[in-house]
Amino acid sequence: MEHAAIALLGFYALGYLILGGADIGLGMMMPFLAKNAPERRQVVRGIVPFFLGHEVWLVAAAGVLIGCFPELEGRMLTSAFPAVVTLLLGWIARDVGLWTRGRAASPAWHGFCDVLICLGSWVVALSWGVFLLWTGGEWPGGIGLLLAGLVVLLFAAHGLGYAGLRIAREGAVGTRVRQLSGRVGGRVLFALTAAAMVLTGIATGRGLSLVDGAADPETLAVLVPALLVITPLVLAAQVGMWWLLRARAVPESDITPVSHPGR
Amino acid sequence: MSPETLDLARWQFALTAGGHFLFVALTLGLATFLALMQTIATVTKSDTFTRMTRFWGRLYVINYAMGIVTGLVMEFQFGLSWSGLTHYAGNVFGASLALETIVAFFVESTFLGLWIFGWDKVNRWVHLGFIWVVTLTAYASAFWILVTNGFLQNPLGYAMDGDKIKLTDFGAVVGNPAAIMAFFHILGGALVVGGFFVAGVSAYHLFKRTPEHRLFTRSLRLGIGMVVPALMFTVTFGGLQLSALHGYQPMKAAAFSGSDSTLAELQADAVARFGPGDYIPPVGAVKTAGIVMMVLFMPLLMFGGLSLLLSFFRPLVHRFRAWHVLLMMAVPWPFLAMISGWVFREMGRQPWVINGLLKTSEAVSDVSPGHMRFSLIAFGSLFAALIVLNIVLLTRAAKRGPVDDAVVTV
Predict the structure, then answer these.
(1) If residue A207 lies in a helix (H) or strand (E), which one and from where to where?
(2) Does chain B have fewer CB atoms within 10 Å around its N or its C terminus?
(3) DSSP element (H, E) containing B166
(4) Residues of A in contact with B99 (CB under 8 A)
(5) Which of B60, B63, B73, B110 would best serve as a mutation to test chain A binding (most A beta carbons within 10 A)?
(6) Contact B362, B354 (CB under 8 A)
(7) CA pair distance B289, B15, nearest whole angstrom
(8) Quick check: is B147 in a domain?
């Protein structure tokens, strides 16, 4: 049972690093990919249809953690307290920007939301860098900062790879995505950075005493089967979501203008 | 443990959970209306109901977004601030939280994304299915959270295992009357919140005589039609809970309605059982909150009942402007009743985090007051900003009325 619980935790945590990490990375890359307001909106449209479906992988991973590894959960979050707080603050700022950007027509509001999205994404990535290294219980010092910096860069690179999948090839943003990805190309870059995300996640997980930190067998006997039944169903729903909303974000000029009466 | 950290952590939990609870109440209520409206729209192919679904859907999504971002803080807060609770009771308490996140919330979010961005992309019956999944998983979410909270009020299905507890009977945890009755009570309350909200916003448009009188007449009738049955449903489960309280939380019941001598007796009993300490919750706050919640019931029921009668007469729905004003003014009161009920339930449990098992002071994390102060200030001001933002955005979208626009634009 412990091993099934570890597999579930790994599945949701790695799923988050790949999917949620891609949304965060794309938010971080906004100033490098978009140089004016319509281009920024295009980048946001690349993030928007999936970000809710993607970020809940972390909510699910945290759920598995609190249900199957409650002791460990308390210890991890408490020891890295400041990193968790900044992670949440960045996450909320970014989500507020994404959710409310289109609720007003003023360019100032759009600009403010873009700052929330981009800055929030950087804060989240940095908090992850610090948090992942802190989970050992103690902060590893100077080398830790260097590794945290590498994690931040990994998020940004992963976002660039994701841009190659989400942003239409034509137009200025698509061109910048290709230029920045260089010869590697979007798909391959995404696969490489996703693999790096997985390795980072596994390396962190190996540092945790997961088997010892697991909940009682009685608890796992209830929880693990329930989670194993629901997991393929939610995965199917997610696959349906990717398929249904798979269209890439095209440049503004290619969108039929929508009137906003009464704004 | 520093007493300062404890106070700061309690303030942080109270402000964030209370704020989150208000968003959730409206989300639960509005989701139900939305599912009903879209069902009518799908079955009858009514244009009015289709436009209603889009209009109320936009308000729903604004509020849902605030509910979700505040909920993120809630999920991580147990591990952050209350690791004593996850250490002591994680084996029992963590299971229902885990089920909430995956069986309910994960599914809800995925399908909400499908519902928002899947307009006109899928068959209309499939799209109707999406909103029903969203609504039912929202209920499931509330259910699992109340199973978790019910365990804190009335722990069942566990056994001691060294310095912590373990799960022995999951059926008892799920079937806990302190969870089931509270779930129905809150579900009813959320429908009251949603009903008055829908009626109040509709009344605004009828009062302003916007061209949308057809759509808002329907909405007003739907909202008001829900209020009276929902109030009766809520009060029934509230009454059942109150009488059951004497069994599992006599101290909370006594803080609300008992005499000083009853309180003193219960305090003496608790000292005999658990050792020296103060086992009386803050009586003034518990009593006030309980009274506010119950006193609000009568005016809400009377106004709701009268409004139901008036709503049958189309000329009154269109022209009775004093009534429109009263309907708009009624919107905040069910929120006040909800939050009072929450204060009553949660403060009445003190000094225990798990009634009779673990004290709040024993559950707080070993974190410095400086760290806790930083997170309290950060989350406190952020939540205040989010509440203001939610009110501003809801008001704007409500005033703007139905427009042919996507539910979410970027």
Answers:
(1) none
(2) N
(3) strand B164-167
(4) 63, 67, 223, 226
(5) B110
(6) no
(7) 16
(8) yes
CA distance B245 to chain A (A): 28
Widest pairwise Cα distance in chain B: 70
pLDDT digits (tens, 9 = 90+) for B313-351: 888 888 899 999 999 999 999 999 999 999 999 999 999
The whole-angstrom separation of Cα B121 and Cα B276 is 65
Residue B20 falls inside a structural domain: no
DSSP label of A182:
T
Q: E-strand spans in A1-113?
A: none
Q: Is the pLDDT of residue B186 over 90?
A: yes
Which pLDDT band, with edges at 50, 70 and 90, does B367 fall under? confident
Q: Which neighbouring-strand residues pair with A249?
A: A167
The total of structural domains in chain B comes to: 1
10 Å CB burial of residue B65 (0-12, 13-18, 19+) is buried
Note the pLDDT of residue A82.
87
Interchain CB contact of B73 with A (< 8 Å): yes
* pLDDT value for B83: 86
Residue B406: inside a domain: no
Query: Which residues, other chains included, contact B327 with Cβ-Cβ below 8 Å and sequence gap of 6+?
Result: B196, B199, B200, B202, B203, B220, B307
CB B34 within 8 A of CB B222: no
Average pLDDT for chain B: 91
Residues in a beta bridge with B352: B359
Mean pLDDT within A28-52: 92
Would you say residue B390 lies in a domain? yes
User: Nearest-CA neighbor of B228 among B305, B295, B311?
Assistant: B305
- Alpha carbon distance A175, A168 (integer Å): 9
- The tens digit of pLDDT for each residue in B253-274 reads 999 988 888 888 989 999 999 9
**Cα B304 to Cα B296: distance, rounded to the nearest angstrom:** 12
Task: For the beta carbon of residue B47, count every other beta carbon within 10 angstroms.
Answer: 11
> Residue B66's domain spans which residues?
26-399
Whether A158 contacts A21, CB under 8 Å: yes
- Measured in whole angstroms, the distance separating CA B322 from the mean position of its chain's CA atoms is 30
